[in-house]
Amino acid sequence: MTLSTQLLRRGIEAAHDVHGLLSAKEGGHGQPGDDEPPQVPALAALVFFVTGMLIIALLFCIGYTFGHLLPTLCMIESPETAAYVPVDVLEPTDPPAYAATTPKPTQDDGEDDAEVLLVRNKPLTASIRQTILHLRARAGYWSPYRGLSMFLIWNVATGLLVGIIASIFHSRLGVAFAAIVAETALATLHMTWVHIVISEASPKRWYQRIASFKTWPKIAPAVALWATSNQIVHILPMLVCGSFGSLKHMNNPEYEPGRKDLYAVGAQGVMAMFLTVLLFVLLQIPASVTLVRVAASMLPEEDETIVPFDRTFGGKTTPAIIGGQGKIGLVEAWRSFPWASRIRLVKLMIKVALIVMAFWLTFTIVLVAEAHVIFGDKLGEMMKTVHGISRPH
């Protein structure tokens, strides 16, 4: 779960609350079956539906690459060490492709060495464009969507399991508990997705790379921590903001909101977004980094990572092939993630959130404009019909 996903979900919920207030203020729409639905040409409805589906597909692709894949690579990349490189082997560039220079070193016998530069390689994941180009150079044109099959299988299986467990409960907290249990139970699928994303292209199919169930006890605590933080970030802001003010009375059929209540809902929505961002930074990022790095520590020895990665985590763990435990602990997984990398990850997520929100705004404008052109004077009636169908009875 990424920051952009959380903000989009929070924005949709806030918009729905405002719309509910406006509907209540207008006195309701009556039952959906009271009036005949407006008649629109089938071709126009089909064009609008296809456009909506294309927008959803594009947002999913953008969210997958920028919101899931790139942050995962950033969480495991270990910046390469600085190196002294002879000047005559570097091609001139503008700006120069180096971070710092060093004076020409001299030997004790008085002879001068060739002029050299101290090159500090910039991490790949510091630039979104550079990361995409690197992936395509190493794993092909479609590499920004690598691991998509495993991602879909993992999420569909999780969704089915959540549905089964959640049928026992009838509350939001019950569904959250079901999600935590389901994610933890399918921890090996989550770990397999991480392995596919961070490793070089492999001839194996996705199902051939699913980790053995014997690895479940090693990865389950990290997934449980991640799933719990995910639910806290999603639920806690709405529980807090929905416990007072106008949102507290939204389900009361006798509640008659006024203009000031609309402003109150807007303010509570902003507060919910602020809490979401705060909890995301304080809980979700550390939990996500911990999960990814613990999973990366169990990457099979025959697989090479597609970005620079220190398997020993600075000497804090020993690979299983030489008698070590073969994984890093939860605390060390986070501590071994240096502050420079943490800042780089936060910057990346801010960029991703802005990109997703910009695309979301653009697609919304396109969809609204198309709705006006296609439905014309019947747009209001269509919105009433859709609202009546979607309202709970």
From TrEMBL:
Residues spanning the membrane: 42-66, 148-169, 175-198, 219-245, 265-283, 352-375
Domain of life: Eukaryota
Keywords of the record: Membrane, Transmembrane, Transmembrane helix
Keyword Transport: no
Name by which UniProt lists this protein: Amino acid transporter transmembrane domain-containing protein
Source organism of the structure: Exophiala sideris
